[in-house]
Structures are given as structure tokens and as C-alpha cells.
């Protein structure tokens, strides 16, 4: 039954491709069996909509008259600093960047109302952004100051390049201490007052392709409401972790670096986000099509929330102090029920990842493919698996002698 | 007929040194549960309460408050979810002390029940896309 991407694309062009979401495929395979389902279905669409801190934007705003060299100087966008260590007119804005005068956690917990992620959202929405730059001036780039409004429709390039997105599974955050803590996993109440998780489970891209047999470098994806591509494996990509019989990692494992043109994206799918007491970030919408090239690939997409497990981690002590061990494992089905049991205590759960929006993304991508507007790409290279020997290591600190 | 309403009272500075709220119980036989209060003599005061009792007494109590100069609003008008910003992640669900947020098990939509909201404001700063707005 093996299909090729070229064959699937032929069917997409003819409007004949059978496309289902990673949620719909579960019931179809249950009803018809995996091999019949694999024969009939051509593409399974996935989706996720979560805060993803390692996101950012490369901008080229066009040369001013006279010319100015941002490289080595300073650039602010709506008072948020951008990175300038590139050529004259290229800058990079990270999702977690904050204005210099933001009080941060000096007034604890900091509110982090506005940062890089919010600017990315506003640029995507077509809003004007105030740019201020100071440069040192050279013979070929004499100008030393620039203050101007910029708009995404007028500048040369706005390239979203997120170096670590779409994590393959994630931890469940809890708090064993006796005070409220403010983390990237949300506000965690004392003494196991709540438990927060953060993937779309059975809809999440890499949880549906646990061994990276379908998604690779060059895979065309839904990114921020537009089209993007998988550029590389994400930083901290860690394929060699304990996995269940179904291949699904039992802790954070793979990750993706993704890239796309912000000009064709939509602020509905790139939302500036504020984590109380932690910082600013960007909530990113990603949807990845999985071509059903084999029965095995389809079988992986039938994974259910009951078969995906996440470790429970104490964010008051174990996480900040890099202590090994967890407080047990729970399935996403249990997490989504609203309550889990930890140390015999009934703990209410919440998600930072919007399953509602993940469903919407998987359905939008499904619609694009059904209408023949979105063709699949052949990966240029696979994502590294466990055999690659890639692991993530903690920092080995070495004392610096004066 | 008994009624019970969650209301927000705004006291103009000139009356914050008078005893007003206690008269709701004494003169109108109403019971109140104060959910939030910030009343400083000489400044504008704010009180969020659940006021209950017989409908006729309730109406008279509200009329009395209005006559002495208290501005009254329903709590639901003062706690608003900005639907355009809510991403339905659900981070609010287990934070809200009065259980005003829930998730529709079918659609995974986050639902907000005004009637359960006590106006504490915990969700306002904890909401990642900052979709909850408090106007008092």
C-alpha cells in the first residue's frame, strides 16, 4: 500500500485526497482497522497552539537616506530592544525581549505586559511600530540616529524563525512549596494546589510521528496562519528518551525549528503572551500534515490521549535546582479530565496549550489540502532520531580564574 | 420572592464616612456577603457584595443606596472577557477560587460563568494573553 508524496500530491491537485485530523483518524482506524484506514487516508493533519518562547523575527527594514548601519549599534521597536549584531539593516527581535525600563520582577510578581511577542503579533496585524536606532557612523554608513514608524507592508523582510517550537511532549508543572510560585508553566498554587500541562496531546505534531518518519527538514507546515517550513531540529532536540511501546516519548523529547514569512501570517495565530512573574513570550499556532506513506505511519497517528504520558515535576524545588526525579506520570486523558491524583491528593489541572485552537488549526490545514491549495513537500533530510547520538547535556561550569 | 445579586458599589468621597451598608440589614432586612471592599474616608470607595433578601426589600434597599449617592452596577458588567484575545487555553480554570471558568468537554472551549465570579481579579494578571478585564 506504500504511497509516495508525489502520488499524494497528485490526488491533492485533483481534489481527491482523503484528509482527516489526528483526532478523526482515531475513530476511523478503530472502526475500519489500521490497514484499511491506511489505504483510504492520504494525509493526517495535526495542530498545536502554545506559548513557545524560542520564537523570533528577522527584519530588514530597507536602507535609509543617508544610510545607517544597525550592526554594532542599538535598535528599539516600541521600546523593546532588538538584536543588531548582523549586517547594516538586519535585526532580530526575540519573543521574550522586554523594554529596558520594564520593572521585571522588581515588583513581584512582574506583570510583563508588553514585549517582543506582542510586537510580532502587532506587526502581523499590520500595525505601525516605532523604530529608534543609534549607530556609531562609518564612511559608508554615516547616519547615527534614526527614528521612524515601520509597517510590515513597507519593509523588505519579516521572517519568523523559531529555533525551538512544537515540543514533543512536555512536563506537568506542580508546586510542593508552601507559597504561590510564578513559572513558565503558569501560576502554581502551594502544596499541590494545581497542575498545569502544555501540549495538545493526541493532536500534537510530533506525538503523532514519534520516530520522525514523516516530518523532516523541509516539511511544509501551517505556521502562524500562513505557510512555513521545518528548518531544522529544534534546540534541545532530545530523541533518546524513555518511550512507551507505542514509541511516544514519556518526557520532553524532539522539537522543531520552523521558519516562514510573517507577511502572510495572521495575528490570530501569533499571540503576544504574558506569563505572570516569568516574562513575555509568543503563543504560536503550528499545524503539520503527516503523509500516510505506510501503515506504520498511520498507526502512529492513531495515538490517543490515554496513551500519551507526561512526568509530573515540582517547579518549586526539583526544576530550579536541576534535581532528577518526578512525582509520577499521568496520561493526557487524565489531565484533560480536570483532575489528577498526586501523592493521594486530588489536584485540579489546567492547560497552557489551547486544545480548542489546535483542533481549529488541524481543520484549517485539512481544508487547505482538500481544496488543493496546499501541497506536501518531501523532506530534504530526516530529523535526527535516537541513533544519531544527539542528547541534551546540562552545562558543565568551569571556574574562571582571573 | 427572594433575590440574590452580585453588585459593585461605588461610594463618592463625601459619603465614605457614613454608615450605609449596615442599614441594608437593619432597615431593609437584607443580608449581604462582602466579597471585596476598599473604603477609605475622603476617597472614592468600592465594595463588591452579594446582596440577598425579599424582592420588595431588595428594591427598597437599592433605592436607598441610590438616594444616598452610591453608584451601583451589576458585577457582570465589570468583569469582562475580551473574546478577541481569549485563546481558550484554560490556564484560568484551576486558578479561579470560585470556579467561574470551566471547559466544555466536547468542544474544549473555555466557558466563563459571570454568576460564579466574585470579582477577585486573580485571573486578570494570570491570563497569558490577558483576555480578562476588570473595570472597577
Tell me what portion of residues of chain B adopts beta-strand conformation: 25-35%
Q: Span between N and C termini of chain B? A: 30 Å
- Given helix and strand content, the structural type of chain B is alpha+beta
Largest sheet of chain A: 9 strands, antiparallel
What is the distance, rounded to the nearest whole angstrom, between the alpha carbons of the first and last residues of chain A? Answer: 66 Å
| Element pattern of chain B in H and E | EHEEHEHEEEHE
What is the highest CATH level, the class of the largest domain in chain B? Alpha Beta
Oligomer state equals heterodimer
Label the structural class of chain A: alpha+beta
Ranges of chain A with pLDDT <50 over ≥5 residues?
A: none
Query: Gyration radius of chain B, to the nearest Å?
Result: 17 Å
**Basic shape of chain B:** elongated
Quick structural summary:
The complex is a heterodimer of chains A (402) and B (136). Chain A is an alpha+beta fold and 402 residues long. Chain A has helices at residues 5-13, 24-32, 34-40, 116-124, 295-301, 332-336, 355-370, and strands spanning 19-21, 43-45, 48-51, 56-60, 74-77, 80-82, 90-94, 129-134, 145-150, 157-165, 172-174, 181-183, 186-188, 195-197, 216-217, 220-223, 226-233, 256-261, 270-275, 279-287, 289-291, 309-314, 329-331, 339-342, 345-351, 381-382.
Task: Provide a descriptive summary of the structure in words.
The complex is a heterodimer of chains A (402) and B (136). Chain A has helices at 5-13, 24-32, 34-40, 116-124, 295-301, 332-336, 355-370; strands at residues 19-21, 43-45, 48-51, 56-60, 74-77, 80-82, 90-94, 129-134, 145-150, 157-165, 172-174, 181-183, 186-188, 195-197, 216-217, 220-223, 226-233, 256-261, 270-275, 279-287, 289-291, 309-314, 329-331, 339-342, 345-351, 381-382. Chain A is of the alpha+beta class and 402 residues long. In chain A, strands 3, 4, 7, 10, 16, 17, 18, 19 and 20 form a nine-stranded antiparallel sheet that branches. Chain B has a four-stranded antiparallel sheet. Chain B has a two-stranded antiparallel sheet with strand order 5-8. A two-stranded antiparallel ribbon of chain B has the order 6-7. In chain B, a hairpin with a 6-residue loop joins strand 2 and strand 3 (45-54). The two termini of chain B are 30 Å apart. The model of chain B has no long low-confidence stretch (mean pLDDT 93). The chains are: A alpha+beta (402), B alpha+beta (136). Chain A binds chain B through residues 49-51, 109, 111, 113, 186-187, 189, 194-196, 271-276, 283, 338, 348-357, 359, and chain B through 85, 87-95, 103, 107-110, 125-126, 128-130.
Amino acid at each position: 500500500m506504500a504511497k509516495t508524496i508525489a502520488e499524494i500530491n497528485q490526488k491533492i491537485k485533483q481534489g481527491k485526497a482523503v484528509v482527516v485530523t489526528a483526532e478523526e483518524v482515531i475513530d476511523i482506524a478503530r472502526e475500519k482497522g489500521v490497514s484499511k484506514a491506511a489505504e483510504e487516508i492520504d494525509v493526517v493533519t495535526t495542530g498545536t497552539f502554545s506559548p513557545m518562547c524560542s520564537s523570533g523575527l528577522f527584519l530588514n527594514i530597507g536602507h535609509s537616506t543617508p544610510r545607517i548601519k544597525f550592526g554594532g549599534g542599538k535598535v528599539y521597536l516600541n521600546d523593546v530592544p532588538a538584536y543588531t549584531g548582523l549586517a547594516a539593516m538586519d535585526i532580530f527581535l526575540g519573543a521574550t525581549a522586554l523594554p529596558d525600563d520594564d520593572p521585571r520582577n522588581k515588583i513581584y510578581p512582574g506583570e510583563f505586559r508588553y514585549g517582543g511577542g506582542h510586537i510580532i503579533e502587532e506587526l502581523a496585524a499590520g500595525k505601525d511600530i516605532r523604530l529608534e536606532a543609534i549607530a556609531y557612523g562609518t564612511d559608508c554608513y554615516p547616519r547615527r540616529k534614526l527614528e521612524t514608524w515601520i509597517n510590515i507592508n513597507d519593509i523588505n523582510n519579516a521572517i519568523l524563525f523559531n529555533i525551538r517550537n512544537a515540543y514533543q511532549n512536555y512536563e506537568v508543572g506542580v508546586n510542593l512549596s508552601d507559597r504561590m510560585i510564578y513559572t513558565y508553566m503558569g501560576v502554581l498554587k502551594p502544596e499541590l494546589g494545581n497542575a498545569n500541562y502544555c501540549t495538545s496531546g493526541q493532536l500534537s505534531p510530533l506525538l503523532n510521528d514519534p520516530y520522525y518518519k514523516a516530518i523532516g527538514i523541509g516539511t511544509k507546515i501551517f505556521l502562524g496562519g500562513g505557510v512555513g517550513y521545518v528548518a531544522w531540529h529544534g534546540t534541545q532536540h532530545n530523541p533518546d528518551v524513555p518511550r512507551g511501546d507505542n514509541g511516544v516519548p514519556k518526557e520532553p523529547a524532539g522539537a522543531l525549528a520552523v521558519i516562514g514569512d510573517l507577511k502572510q501570517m495572521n495575528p490570530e495565530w501569533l499571540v503576544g503572551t504574558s506569563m505572570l512573574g516569568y516574562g513575555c513570550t509568543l503563543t504560536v499556532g503550528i499545524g503539520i500534515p503527516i503523509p500516510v506513506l505506510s501503515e506504520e505511519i498511520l498507526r502512529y497517528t492513531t495515538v490517543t490521549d490515554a496513551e500519551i504520558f507526561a512526568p509530573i515535576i515540582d517547579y518549586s524545588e526539583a526544576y530550579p535546582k536541576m534535581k532528577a526525579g518526578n512525582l509520577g506520570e499521568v496520561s493526557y486523558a487524565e489531565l484533560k479530565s480536570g483532575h489528577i491524583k498526586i501523592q493521594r491528593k486530588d489536584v485540579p489541572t489546567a492547560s497552557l496549550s489551547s486544545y480548542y485552537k489546535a483542533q481549529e488549526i488541524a481543520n484549517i490545514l485539512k481544508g487547505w489540502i482538500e481544496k488543493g491549495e496546499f501541497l506536501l513537500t518531501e523532506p530534504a533530510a530526516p530529523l535526527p532520531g535516537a541513533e544519531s547520538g544527539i542528547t541534551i547535556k546540562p552545562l558543565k561550569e568551569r571556574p574562571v580564574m582571573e | 420572592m427572594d433575590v440574590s445579586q452580585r453588585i459593585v458599589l461605588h461610594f463618592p468621597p463625601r459619603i465614605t464616612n457614613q454608615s450605609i451598608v449596615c442599614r441594608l440589614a437593619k432597615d431593609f432586612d437584607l443580608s449581604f456577603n462582602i466579597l471585596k471592599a476598599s473604603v477609605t474616608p475622603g476617597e472614592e470607595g468600592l465594595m463588591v457584595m452579594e446582596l440577598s433578601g425579599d424582592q420588595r426589600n431588595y428594591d427598597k434597599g437599592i433605592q436607598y443606596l441610590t438616594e444616598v449617592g452610591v453608584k451601583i452596577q451589576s458585577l457582570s458588567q465589570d468583569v469582562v472577557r475580551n473574546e478577541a484575545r481569549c485563546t481558550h487555553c484554560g490556564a484560568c480554570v484551576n486558578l479561579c477560587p470560585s470556579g467561574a471558568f470551566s471547559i466544555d468537554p466536547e468542544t474544549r472551549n473555555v466557558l466563563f460563568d459571570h454568576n460564579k465570579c466574585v470579582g477577585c481579579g486573580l485571573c486578570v494578571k494570570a491570563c497569558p494573553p490577558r483576555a480578562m478585564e476588570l473595570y472597577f
